[in-house]
Design goal:
The radius of gyration is 21 Å and the shape is globular. The protein has 13 helices and 15 strands. It folds into 2 domains: about 160 residues, Bordetella uptake gene, domain 1 (D-Maltodextrin-Binding Protein, domain 2); about 150 residues, Periplasmic binding protein-like II (D-Maltodextrin-Binding Protein, domain 2, 3-Layer(aba) Sandwich), CATH 3.40.190.10. The relative contact order is 0.16. The strands form 4 sheets. The chain has an 8-stranded mixed sheet, with helices on both faces. It has a 3-stranded antiparallel sheet with strand order 10-7-11. Strands 8-9 form a two-stranded parallel ribbon. It is an alpha+beta fold. The N terminus is likely disordered. Helix content is about 40%, strand content about 15%. α2 runs antiparallel to α11, α5 packs antiparallel against α9 and α6 packs parallel to α7. β8, α5 and β9 form a beta-alpha-beta unit.
Length: about 375
């Protein structure tokens, strides 16, 4: 089976070297006028930023496979970010998948030069750091954070899973099904397993898929039957390849929750129930207890910051300032917002550097007994 082709991204050129795509932003001013504008309007700081990136190329690194949701979003951002960076640099996108996003993260901390020319757009492995995943060799708090995007997860299942299912109400009647995961310590895998355990579903967890696009391919081939993905995964991959042909059904999405447990429903997913709604219908009460508290903690940070962008520690201030300014310009870029909505079928929920850093620090501040509880849960897979 093949996935439906994604819409072409305009203004892209193929680079035969490593099959990368190079984005050259359109120049809105002649070179002399741009230099004059920088000098007059933003002064020395802007001039320093322009000098840093003038005539250079940024490598935009993505830690999951090409064609997956992180890759699609990263390429949308890459296409538009460059035109907001003083100096008008080109951007080349490269993928470094592996180990649930850890391979690329280790590269950013151990190999990438702190020169502002290698920028990460990752599904950040914060839960892997919280759980002391042996594969993660770097400290994420040492990175310099630029911005991010928040997205909830939608869960779906093949209709012929187990004894057959038409809606979430049939889930507990199934005699068993297989769940497609990436790595036991990712926030995706933890939330899927925790939710199914809270419901008391009978399932077998299968990890090792290199990205959600690969997991969906596994579902199409009936190797596995259940998984979850972001709105982008759901709209661009799951709906046309599984929901539309009648092979699968959406079960629920995971909403962020307030301190009092109230749900923050997402208007972009109207018509799909929340996990809390489904739990109440199937179990007669809202979810609660220590397992649910751990789930809420992981889910809330992930919904707020599913993707994040950063550079290595030691990156020059002028590069960091230029990149953060570009991130801050994206919400006001009508072309970016339009492209994002066209592909994701939902507006972007962008977060800026200060908020991203706060999420990273919040994960580091988790109580040790909570982290120990989640580590024990991972061992019980």
């Amino acid at each position: 089976m093949r996935f439906r082709h994604f819409p072409a991204i305009p203004n892209a050129q193929f680079n035969p070297i490593r099959f990368a795509i190079v984005y050259k932003p359109r120049k809105r001013f002649p070179g002399a006028a741009l230099a004059c504008l920088l000098a007059v309007v933003i002064g020395f700081t802007g001039t320093a930023q322009a000098q840093h990136y003038q005539g250079k190329r940024i490598t935009f690194l993505i830690n999951y496979t090409a064609g997956g949701p992180t890759d699609i979003e990263g390429r949308i951002v890459a296409r538009h970010l460059g035109k907001h960076i003083a100096g008008n640099p080109g951007i080349v996108v490269k993928n470094m998948p592996g180990a649930g996003g850890i391979a690329g993260t280790n590269f950013m901390g151990e190999v990438a030069r702190p020169d502002g020319l290698t920028v990460a757009f990752f599904g950040p492995p914060l839960t892997q750091q919280l759980l002391q995943d042996s594969g993660l060799r770097v400290d994420l708090s040492e990175f310099v954070w630029l911005g991010g995007i928040g997205l909830p997860l939608v869960c779906f299942i093949r209709k012929d899973a187990g004894t057959g299912i038409d809606s979430a109400e049939n889930l507990l009647e199934l005699d068993g099904f297989r769940v497609a995961g990436l790595r036991p310590t990712t926030s995706l895998d933890l939330r899927m397993r925790m939710a199914l355990d809270l419901l008391g579903a009978r399932y077998r967890y299968v990890s090792g898929y290199r990205g959600l696009a690969n997991a969906v391919a596994g579902i199409m081939q009936n190797e596995v039957q259940f998984s979850c993905g972001t709105i982008l995964t759901f709209r661009q991959i799951v709906e046309p390849n599984l929901i539309g042909p009648g092979l699968a059904v959406a079960l629920w999405y995971f909403p962020a929750t307030g301190p009092d447990g109230s749900q923050m429903r997402d208007a972009r997913l109207e018509g799909i129930p929340t996990f809390i709604d489904v739990h109440e219908r199937l179990k007669g009460r809202k979810p609660e207890g220590r397992l649910y508290d751990a789930f809420r903690m992981i889910n809330n940070y992930a919904v707020a910051m599913q993707r994040a962008s950063f550079v290595p520690a030691g990156t020059p201030d002028e590069a960091v300032d230029a990149l953060r300014s570009a991130w801050e310009a994206l919400p006001r870029d009508e072309d970016f917002v339009s492209d994002y909505i066209r592909l994701v079928k939902a507006p972007p929920a962008l977060v800026q550097a200060t908020a991203v850093r706060a999420h990273v620090e919040a994960m580091r501040a988790i109580e040790p007994d909570t982290a120990a509880f989640i580590r024990e849960f991972v061992r019980r897979q």
